[in-house]
Amino acid sequence: MSSLQLKGRRWMELSLEEQRVYVMRLLDALEVTDRDKRLKVARAILYLAQGVFDECDTEADVLYWSRHNVFLLYDMGIFTALLELLSMEIDNNQACSSAVRKPAISLADSTELRVLLSIMYLMVETIRVETEGDSPERKAAREAFKTELGSPLYNGEPFALLLFTMVTKFCSMNAPHFPMKKVLLLLWKTILFTLGGFEELQEMKVRMREQLNLSPLPEDSIKVVRQMRAASPPASAMELIEQQQQQKRGRRSRRPLVKQDSLDTYNERDPFKNDDARDEEDDPEDVDSGIEGEVDPLDRDVIIQPPPPPPLRPPTERVSFPRGLPWAPKVREKDIEHFLETSRNKFIGFTLGKCQSESPLLIGQGEEEVEETPAEILYLGMLPSLSQYVIALLKLLLAAAPTSKAKTDSINILADVLPEEMPITVLQSMKLGIDVNRHKEIIVKAISALLLLLLKHFKLNHIYQFEYVAQHLVFANCIPLILKFFNQNIMSYISAKNSICALDFPHCVVHEMPELTAESLEAGDSNQFCWRNLFSCINLLRILNKITKWKHSRTMMLVVFKSAPILKRALKVKQAMMQLYVLKLLKIQTKYLGRQWRKSNMKTMSAIYQKVRHRLNDDWAYGNDIDARPWDFQAEECALRECIEKFNTRRYDKNQNSDFTPVDNCLQSVLGQRVDLPEDFHYSYEMWLEREVFSQPIQWEGLLQAQ
């Protein structure tokens, strides 16, 4: 098929074979030395990956052809060619040095990088998502691509390691023109594809427990959280004073109650109240019922009135809710041993001491066999520079946080959003402001999801891999960083409207562009909240939970940093999953906050009791048996670090120290090993036998008696 026969014809009119011929021509043209020609070809490939939108009439058509073309591009080897070009751009020292010398970086400095990353992102995300109509060929391509991305096929390391390198290079100021938003999005989706999401993680947990003959999980945590209902937030001191004043004036403080509004029923009403001036929550009497799921409808300052929707549930469904707590109680073996030891000492004055159970040294049979899972391959690749990766991600998170103030020495994360020429009109300034805020929100979303995925998968793969990443997060001040993130008007952040619906893809390419005005930009869209920001907040809370759980010194850090009022304000977001992880963080520190705090926050304590899992001998609500250990952060972290280093040395260090080398205690295995002897040994081995064996008296009777 000649190129002249394809010229002037629509892409949809070409047969599959003709499309393959055209893609092959583009693949050949990517290898030209002219940079401008390469960029033109890359833009053509991007147009195909975006669904040849100029030939489509509806958004569904764009999505169909985008999926069709992406699988075609992968089948023709486009991803590998793009990877080579991306590596060239990363190693382009001339572009890096030029960007370093520039006083201001703009979109023009990363044009080719952004085109390459956009194509790769579309390919990873499109192939990752499985649809019902996928053919067996597409399913096979998905599994092949997943294996390819997670295997060390790219210069001996997984694809994610190349993206991590871009992140660290950007944060070290060596490549300030790298488009970090696109890099982080691609990195997150690559990890999500190769390791699996939360549902795949749950399935992996179930399979591993079956393999290890462990009891099945008492419940599916994902399903339990989805069935939870949000609670009304506790009252603030301002509201208590206001209610007392209302009672003095003789005003009624009790009003009819209706079913609670929350993010879970967002189509019904505006789920938020205006809290710009002060913390506006429910009246104290209403809060008491609000924990059960009710709220006063008259407390809302701004209500957007949509058409009345059909009822979400039948009125009688409320009485059919299951009674009892949502979680099955749990207990650790360590807790049982501590309970029994305390009981023995209390009632009979006898303790077993530290030798409650024998702890034999596990002696390996030769080298340890490690299963080459995607998580294991990724950890092995990240291990040499893991601290740099963690610090770089937290630097980006800090720069993108809404509470951060611009500093002259901070990294510039806006290099891939600022135009060459700054806006000169009010409309252009408003549009740029929305773009900048959206840009930061996406960065926070990608980093929070990425860190949570790494923690969960490494914890399932090996606990010390999880502890290593978690400890680096703690050492890099992740705990105060997340608390600083939540120390803002969290309701405003959740309900932010930093998006322009008319410019969303693929809507903007198949519909006529409406005239944008300052009023329309200020009004924003019709959504009452931003799923993107809610997703980020939940991820950050889960990360904070994971790095502080069962760690006394880290829990005390939450107390020292005065996280309780910050977390309590976050309860105003009426979304069940977010409230659950806030309550978990409050639960682990309630015993250290004092009796007066618990007495003044009984509504919060009640919500913890109702929504958080209970554990045997966990005196969280009373603090009578408060932990008497001194808060020695360095000692606890150093002890943990020692265990982690032993694990890493034993498992990954090729030049192992003899202290960590597994001992082979199998006689046949030892005798069968090949021993390297010096070259002159065969000349003198008879003398060695005579001196070391035959001339040495052996007391055979003594050996028999010893047996």
TrEMBL record:
One of its GO terms (biological process) is cytoskeleton organization. Pfam families: DUF3402 (PF11882), N1221 (PF07923). Residues 1-264 form the Far11/STRP N-terminal domain. Residues 266-276 have a biased composition (Basic and acidic residues). Transmembrane segments: none annotated. Residues 233-321 are annotated as: Disordered. Residues 248-257 have a biased composition (Basic residues). InterPro entries: Far11/STRP, Far11/STRP_C, Far11/STRP_N. Residues 277-296 have a biased composition (Acidic residues). Residues 343-685 form the Far11/STRP C-terminal domain. Coiled coil: none annotated. GO terms for cellular component: cytosol. Belongs to the STRIP family. This is Striatin interacting protein 2. The lineage of its organism: Eukaryota, Metazoa, Chordata, Craniata, Vertebrata.
